[in-house]
């Protein structure tokens, strides 16, 4: 029922229970039988004996109106009670986690890393795996990220940061040996749905302990009323990875992706938060090199009837994280990568969505992108429906937003891009002003 979903979607409190109880009593039939409520009540209402259909319709409309009003009251109250409250990618941003450059390490060049990087960077990983990224590059990236933080704070947004950790330490489990990566991309680690934070079971061995950098924040949010979910942690033994995965050419990868074959197997569930994109009650996800069907099914069962989970696929030889391929920037408004067309795009068109193909990125070929593509140009952060943080170097993208009537907050993130993410990746929005709604 919608009322149940709304209550579960926000932090619980005695007043919320009382409001919901009043809503249920008002909507329940006189005989006490439970009434299943939908957003379109009048089409399924049946009049009681001796009651005119017109009277039922009038009562149904009145009940529906009162229900919607009280539902919004529950959502609003829950948002005030809980610091974690975010349902989509565009409602007004109030609190956000921004990642850190400090301690960033080149990941050991294991099978799953090789499958997610391009061949022209393999020498770099073979020589530098387990070492720090180039010091000068990290210095410039650090300056960019700290300026980004200052700009967000100047906009009145609360900015939280993960712990500084030593990712150079090697760790050993019964199944593998590795050193760490970084705490730069909270969007990969934490999936926020309403008042719930999900610590995702990631697929890279170098990211096995990455959650530790964010754990103090998650613990704090939990103590303040947020829900905290940790899915099954994958063992990451050899059975999770296709050991004979052919990856020498882009053609190989295109062929395999078209067949639904990736470096990760279905041995155990794994997924990165960045393979999910939110639009209220509809959550979109892709099967990728780091998110398997097992992980998607785990999420589907976990979400139950609170959300609708939709699986998307793209012409992408190396899918990993959806937000530089399909980035929803407003209600019924999506940036769709023209180089990676969505196979299900007609469903969005039929639903009345506006599909925008962003312009080609302006980043030069000479700039190192060790773990990402130039299409980070579309990996933007919406501050609200009419303001967006976009890279100051991406002039064509800036002009696109201006034509859409969206004000651009321009920040350079070019050197930080080299570590694998744009503004959306470098952040995880903890609180946005708004309620759970349906857009699809």
Characterization of this structure:
Belongs to the amidinotransferase family. By secondary structure, the protein is of the alpha/beta class. It has 2 domains: 80 residues, no CATH class; 340 residues, L-arginine/glycine Amidinotransferase, Chain A (5-stranded Propeller). The strands form 6 sheets. It has a 3-stranded mixed β-sheet with strand order 2-1-17. A 3-stranded mixed β-sheet has the order 5-6-7. Strands 8-9-10 form a 3-stranded mixed β-sheet, with helices on one face. Strand 9, helix 10 and strand 10 form a beta-alpha-beta unit. The longest helix has 29 residues. The radius of gyration is 23 Å and the shape is globular. The protein starts with a helix and ends in an 8-residue tail after the last strand.
């Amino acid at each position: 029922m919608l009322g149940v979903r709304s209550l579960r979607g926000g932090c619980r409190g005695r007043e919320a229970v009382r409001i919901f109880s009043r809503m249920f009593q008002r909507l329940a039939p006189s005989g006490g039988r439970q009434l299943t409520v939908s957003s379109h009540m009048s089409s399924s209402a049946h009049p009681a004996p001796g009651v005119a259909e017109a009277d039922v319709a009038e009562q149904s409309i009145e009940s529906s109106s009162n229900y919607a009003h009280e539902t919004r009251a529950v959502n609003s109250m829950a948002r005030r009670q809980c610091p974690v409250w975010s349902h989509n990618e565009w409602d007004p941003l109030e609190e956000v986690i921004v990642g850190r450059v400090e301690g960033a390490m080149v990941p050991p060049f294991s099978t799953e890393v090789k499958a997610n990087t391009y061949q022209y960077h393999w020498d770099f990983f073979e020589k530098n795996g387990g070492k720090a990224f180039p010091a000068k590059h990290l210095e410039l990236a650090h300056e960019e990220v700290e300026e980004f933080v200052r700009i967000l704070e100047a906009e009145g947004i609360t900015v939280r940061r993960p712990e500084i950790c030593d990712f150079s330490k090697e760790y050993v489990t019964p199944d593998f040996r590795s050193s760490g990566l970084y705490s730069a991309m909270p969007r990969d680690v934490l999936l926020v749905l309403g008042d719930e934070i999900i610590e995702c079971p990631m697929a890279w061995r170098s990211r096995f302990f990455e959650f530790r950098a964010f754990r103090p924040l998650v613990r704090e949010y939990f103590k303040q009323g947020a829900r905290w979910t940790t899915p099954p942690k994958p063992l990451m033994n050899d059975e999770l990875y296709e050991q004979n995965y052919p990856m020498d050419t882009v053609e190989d990868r295109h062929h395999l992706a078209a067949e639904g074959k990736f470096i990760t197997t279905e041995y155990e569930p794994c997924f990165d938060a960045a393979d999910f994109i939110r639009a209220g009650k509809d959550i979109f996800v892709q099967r990728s090199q780091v998110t398997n069907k097992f992980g998607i099914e785990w999420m589907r069962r976990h979400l139950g009837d609170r959300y609708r989970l939709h699986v998307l696929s793209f012409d992408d030889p190396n899918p990993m994280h959806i937000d530089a391929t399909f980035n929803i920037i407003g209600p019924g408004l999506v940036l769709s990568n023209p180089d990676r067309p969505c196979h299900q795009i007609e469903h969005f068109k039929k639903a009345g969505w506006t599909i925008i193909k962003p312009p080609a990125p302006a980043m030069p070929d000479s700039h190192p992108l060790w773990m990402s593509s130039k299409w980070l140009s579309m990996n933007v952060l919406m501050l609200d429906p009419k303001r967006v943080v976009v890279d100051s170097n991406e002039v064509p993208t800036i002009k696109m937003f201006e034509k859409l009537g969206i004000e651009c907050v321009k920040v350079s993130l070019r050197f930080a891009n080299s570590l694998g993410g744009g503004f959306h990746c470098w952040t995880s929005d903890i609180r946005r002003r708004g309620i759970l709604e349906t857009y699809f």
